[in-house]
Design goal:
By secondary structure, this protein is mainly alpha-helical. Helix content is 81%, strand content 0%. Helix 5 packs antiparallel against helix 6.
Length: 194
């Protein structure tokens, strides 16, 4: 959606998308997560006070973490897919239209396969960064693996051991994701040559 907005002929959509990506990519992930956690809490409760629909809501860290990570990586993925779209030669669309393809068929058969193939390297980097960013959610009190390892390390006075285990788990997830995404990228390249 963001990539579409940045490539739109509507100036309001382009400005909104540009503001979103510039603002979000310019603020450190942890700062934005904490702002959404504490600021989001305040905004939700002010809306409840103003409308009288609820007294006080307590946003759970998981919901805020998912929303924050979605907002953060949505801005990175916007640029990934916009760049991939811009790298498709204009003649591809013109050729599809000349063959009588409507907008949806043109997108499905011509644009989408090339878009995915062009986006894969940057998408892979963003995905791996996203996985590591989830560790920041422990700062908000989310009961995740980092939080649990920290607590176990404090209780046993062996923080290195438990944090090292978390390192191994994240490394395993990263390697598995990288292997899977490389396989997908190879499949997309093979589909291009067929």
């Amino acid at each position: 959606m963001g990539a579409w907005a940045k490539s739109s002929k509507f100036s309001a959509a382009r400005r909104a998308a540009e503001t979103y990506t510039t603002l979000v990519r310019g603020v450190p992930d942890l700062v934005l997560m904490l702002l959404l956690y504490y600021g989001g809490q305040a905004v939700v409760n002010r809306i409840g006070d103003a409308t009288g629909l609820w007294d006080t809501l307590q946003l759970d860290p998981f919901t805020v973490a998912v929303a924050a990570i979605g907002v953060i990586f949505g801005s990175y993925m916007t640029e990934t897919f916009r760049g991939a779209y811009l790298s498709i030669p204009r003649g591809q669309s013109e050729g599809g239209k000349a063959l009588g393809m409507n907008g949806w068929i043109l997108f499905k058969l011509v644009i989408w396969p090339q878009l995915m193939r062009n986006a894969m390297p940057s998408f892979t980097n963003n995905w791996l960064s996203l996985m590591k960013t989830t560790a920041l959610a422990s700062v908000m009190g989310l009961e995740d693996i980092v939080n649990k390892a920290n607590a176990a390390g404090r209780a046993t006075h062996q923080p290195f051991t438990f944090i090292f285990i978390v390192l191994i788990i994240y490394l395993g997830l990263t390697i598995a994701s990288d292997v899977g995404l490389r396989f997908l990228a190879r499949r997309l390249r093979v589909a291009e040559t067929v």
